[in-house]
Write a structure and sequence with these properties.
heterodimer; A: mainly alpha; 2 strands; globular; B: Four Helix Bundle (Hemerythrin (Met), subunit A)
């Protein structure tokens, strides 16, 4: 049944291509409304940003690891930001860490990850022609593009980009006198983020609408692949939290440009009192972290969803605890909104409130642990196939464990007094959120590359890329825990100025070397990506022998995804290695009635119902064909 | 040709709700989140003290009546659309648009009244918040009036009738929401100023 389907599909694909040629370059590649192309646009833009953001981290790692190094050779790139004696300008160092954070969190791991895979996979995996509104989807990308351009321009202005940290706390960010980066750079940051919020909301509204309204026949919520569940919940989190960031940013704009005092009070600069009174900087922190914490899960959940799918496929086993996975993701979604103040334990918040937020924060460990347990039990005794995507997925699980454990430390308000704003925090979130999500992104690219471009990526280069990155990430971030426990604060320009951190110079040199190697390893991926796009081995229709719907489309699906009818779904997406079945996978499009040998007793009862549905459908088909004639 | 036909036809939708209407509801959710965050910021800030006390402009009562009336006239247009009574649709839509504009003018005069009692946008956050609430709501209301005018124009082109209610229904949902949002803001201010 399945093979027959794919055969007709590929035959029909050729006819279809003739129609697609009506698209000109602009409607096909630039102002496209095809969700697949929009997904690729997000991916390429995200990759560009990842390169810029990664390069920034290399530059400030040079400063941290080799403080005496003469950086004169960077002058062609950085110009005046290299001081006369060849050191990195301290103001620019602050700008670098700020922009690295902003770029990685929002532009790479939100737009590049969620934007790419939600767009690309939602219609393909739920069986839809396209997103609910292709036009809104296009707007979503172009708002992101405008936002990118503005943020990019801010890197090159004379006073430098925003430098108050990616959280842009006032009063530092609100007062132009505070630091050079709080001038035009901060204004551009706010404008860019406004466009970014609009882009995220347009995208999110589309994802939710599409998942709820445009599922194909038989695709009930309990048959959705876990990727779709993850994208769906991510979009809900975004829809509820990005407007709050908008509020926070709006009030900040008023404080900066109109002279209001929402966040400003009793400030003296150079002995001069500012007129602002009555504001509260903690108010900003509340508003910001009401987005900021859910944002962590906006970044992480899609990666977890992608991992679920890839691990199940390449373990040739059904995902362990599908319902538990969905419920944990739901739990994480809800809990993500009630833990924001754990970023503010030392802000002078009422300690009693702190203990409540601590309690709620620690509860998140439960759904997270359930997910980890399910990943491991899915892997347990599976017929593991170590594709690059699979390796990156397993890497994600590893980071999720090692970075998650330190989350339990940081969630305790008492321990947080010591660890707050130290490199321990940096190590924690780079492992659990940064690297884990980045590995999810990489896993997704390796796994769905054949569907995106019709060719395979080179697996060997993938392995090299994986091992260098995996080991590199641990070498970079593991030592940071020790530096953090010793109490060294993040965002500081120099280690050598304090007696107690002098002894970490070697360790920092080590971290910097590891960071540079890890960054260089990404070039292997970039080469592999672009080379395989044109020269890679042509993919088969279902290279990973996977169950989900996207693999029933032609090799190069046109706008509309399936020539002819959209396939109907008869089972959940995780029928791998079902006892009795001929093959070790049964795609979702195979009816239960076609597999009597592997049906479970309760499925056998569903066969009758299914036959009625199929009969209905045949009738529809006949009617359709009659109309076409 | 065959493929094209199939693409246009699409699959049956498992849920009866029109995707665009659903998207509108999601948009409304995001607007709710903006105002929920701003009003909670107001409460958090108020609890910290140093809060300017002043009387709300009386004109808010009038503008509230106007916005409720506009919802009534829009409902009139909506029922008329369901019965295909074109002239009544137009009457209702024009009245609603005019009431919407009157509301905006009234909000402007509320700002004038605030300035008269020395409550400025720049100054104690108590006043600033009031300007942000009314201003941001007014911007959304302007978008609502534009939506009303778009539907009004399409009614002149005979595109609004009982068989084609989508735009009308979305417009009605949005407008009632904006009215409700104002009533919420007003009540909130009455209770918390």
């Amino acid at each position: 049944m399945a093979t027959a389907n794919t055969a007709t599909n590929s035959a029909a694909a050729h006819d279809h291509h003739d129609h697609e040629h009506h698209d000109n370059f602009i409607t096909k590649y630039i102002f496209t409304t095809d969700h697949k192309m929009i997904g690729k646009q997000f991916l390429i833009t995200g990759m560009l940003w990842a390169f810029i953001g990664g390069l920034m981290s290399v530059i400030f790692r040079l400063q941290l690891g080799f403080p005496d190094m003469n950086l004169e050779w960077l002058r062609p790139l950085l110009g005046g930001w290299i001081t006369a004696d060849g050191a990195l300008d301290p103001e620019f160092y602050l700008a670098l860490v700020t922009m690295h954070g902003t770029i990685m969190v929002f532009f790479v791991l939100t737009a590049g990850l969620s934007g790419t895979f939600s767009n690309f996979l939602i219609p393909l995996q739920i069986g839809a022609r396209d997103m609910a509104s292709g036009f809104m989807n296009m707007l979503s990308y172009w708002f992101f593009f405008v936002s990118s351009v503005i943020m990019f321009i801010s890197l090159f202005i004379e006073s430098g980009p925003a430098s108050g940290g990616w959280v842009v706390y006032p009063p530092l960010s609100a007062l132009e006198q505070a630091m050079p980066g709080s001038g035009l750079g901060m204004t551009l940051w706010l404008i860019a983020m406004t466009f970014f919020i609009a882009s995220s909301l347009l995208g999110g509204i589309n994802y939710i609408t599409t998942v709820i309204n445009l599922r194909t026949k038989g695709m009930s919520f309990s048959r959705l692949p876990l990727t779709i569940w993850a994208f769906f919940l991510t979009a809900i989190i975004g829809l509820l939290s990005f407007p709050v960031l908008f509020s926070a940013a709006l009030l900040l704009v008023f404080d900066r440009s109109f002279g209001t005092s929402f966040y400003l009070s009793d400030i003296y600069i150079g002995g001069e009192a500012l007129p602002n009174t009555g504001g509260s900087p903690v108010l900003y922190q509340h508003l910001f972290w009401f987005l900021g914490h859910p944002e962590v899960y906006i970044v992480l959940l899609p990666a977890l969803g992608i991992t679920s799918e890839i691990i199940a496929t390449n373990s040739r086993k059904p995902i362990f605890g599908y319902k538990a996975m969905v419920i944990s993701m739901l739990g994480i979604t809800i809990l993500s909104f009630v833990v924001w103040a754990h970023h503010m334990f030392v802000s002078g918040m009422n300690p009693f409130l702190g203990s409540i937020f601590m309690f709620l924060t620690l509860i998140i460990a439960i759904p997270s642990a359930v997910k980890v347990f399910n990943y491991l039990t899915t892997l347990w005794r599976g017929n593991l196939i170590f594709t690059p995507g699979m390796l990156f997925s397993i890497g994600l699980v590893s980071f999720f464990i090692s970075g998650g454990l330190t989350g339990i430390f940081l969630g305790n308000s008492a321990i947080d007094i010591q660890l707050h704003d130290t490199y321990f925090v940096v190590a924690h979130f780079h492992l659990v959120m940064g690297s884990a999500s980045f590995f999810g992104l990489m896993a997704g690219v390796y796994h769905w590359f054949p569907k995106m471009f019709g060719r395979m990526m080179d697996a060997r280069l993938g392995y090299v890329h994986f091992w260098l990155t995996f080991i590199g990430v641990y070498l970079v971030f593991f030592p940071m825990h020790y530096i953090g426990i010793a109490g060294f604060p993040r965002r500081y320009y120099s280690w050598t100025t304090f007696e107690f951190t002098n002894m970490y110079t070697d360790l920092n040199m080590f971290v910097s070397v590891a960071a540079i190697i890890t960054f260089a390893a990404q070039l292997i991926f970039v080469f592999n990506f672009f080379y395989s796009m044109y020269r890679g081995r042509v993919a088969t229709l279902n290279p990973w022998r996977s169950n989900t719907l996207e693999w029933t489309t032609p090799l190069h699906p046109g706008h509309g995804n399936w020539p002819g009818e959209i396939p109907t779904v008869y089972r959940w997406p995780y029928d791998y290695s079902k006892p009795g079945a001929e093959e070790d996978y049964i795609p979702q499009t195979v009816p239960l009635s076609a597999t009597p040998e592997s049906n479970l007793p309760h499925e056998q009862e569903l066969v009758k119902l299914e036959k009625e549905i199929i009969a209905d459908e045949e009738a529809d088909l006949v009617a359709n064909e009659a109309r076409q004639v | 040709m065959e493929e094209k036909f199939a693409y246009v036809e699409g699959a049956e939708q498992p849920i009866a709700m029109h995707p665009k209407k659903f998207a509108l509801w999601l948009f409304i959710v995001s607007v709710v989140m903006i105002f929920a965050s701003l009003t909670s910021a107001y409460i958090v800030r108020q609890s910290e003290g140093n809060w300017l006390e002043f009387d709300l402009p009386v004109i808010f009562w009038y503008s509230s009546v106007v916005i409720v009336l506009s919802s009534v006239t829009l409902h009139y247009a909506y029922t008329a659309a369901k019965k295909d009574e074109l002239s009544k649709i137009r009457l209702g839509m024009i009245l609603t648009s005019i009431l919407g504009v009157i509301f905006l003018v009234a909000q402007w005069y509320s700002w004038v009244a605030l300035v008269d009692r020395d409550v400025f946008f720049v100054g104690n956050p108590a006043g600033s918040f009031l300007y942000v609430f009314t201003g941001l709501h007014a911007i959304h209301l302007i978008s609502g009036v534009i939506f009303l005018i778009i539907v009004l124009i399409s009614s002149f082109r005979y595109k609004v009738h009982s068989k084609n209610m989508n735009a009308m229904e979305m417009c009605v949902t949005y407008w009632h929401f904006l009215g409700g949002l104002w009533l919420y803001l007003f009540m909130f201010l009455l209770l918390n100023h």
